[in-house]
Amino acid sequence: LEVAESGGGLVQPGGSLKLSCQASGVTLEHLSIGWFRQVPGKEHKELVCAAGKDGPFCGESVKGRFTMSSDTAKNTLTLEMSSLIPADTGVYFCAARVGTGTFRYADEYRSWGQGTQVTVSS
Predict the structure, then answer these.
(1) How does pLDDT run across 31-45, given as a tens digit for each residue?
(2) Average model confidence (pLDDT) for the chain?
(3) DSSP 44-74
(4) CA Rg value for the chain
(5) 121 CB neighbour count, 10 Å cutoff
(6) Is 115 helix (H, G, I), strand (E, B) or coil?
(7) Best label site of 27, 30, 106, 119, fewest CB within 10 Å?
(8) How many CB atoms are located within 10 Å of the residue 78 CB?
(9) What φ, ψ does residue 21 adopt, rounded to 5°?
(10) Is the pLDDT of residue 79 over 90?
């Protein structure tokens, strides 16, 4: 199982951005996927949103602004971010594992992408 992110960049406050997580080796229907954010100077990776058989979950700081959608033909999960604020700045990682639940902790995931930078700034 491998995953790779794409779609980061620079966006102004209030803008939108989409990040994609493409999985290979296992189809989406068998995967739980999480999006994590790491801010500058911190090792901790904060859960942003997660998708799995228990249903989607997004953290309080992004609820109502971030959503997820899947494209089974491309084996890709997309994180759609809107009303972006400077606090959303960070490196965003996609992580995946084979599983039936929705997992919220970084150490529950087995495969990680290399990360993609999102910068929200005017």
Answers:
(1) 999 999 999 889 999
(2) 96
(3) PPEEEEEESTT--EE-TTTTTTEEEEEETTT
(4) 13
(5) 10
(6) coil
(7) 27
(8) 19
(9) -125, 110
(10) yes
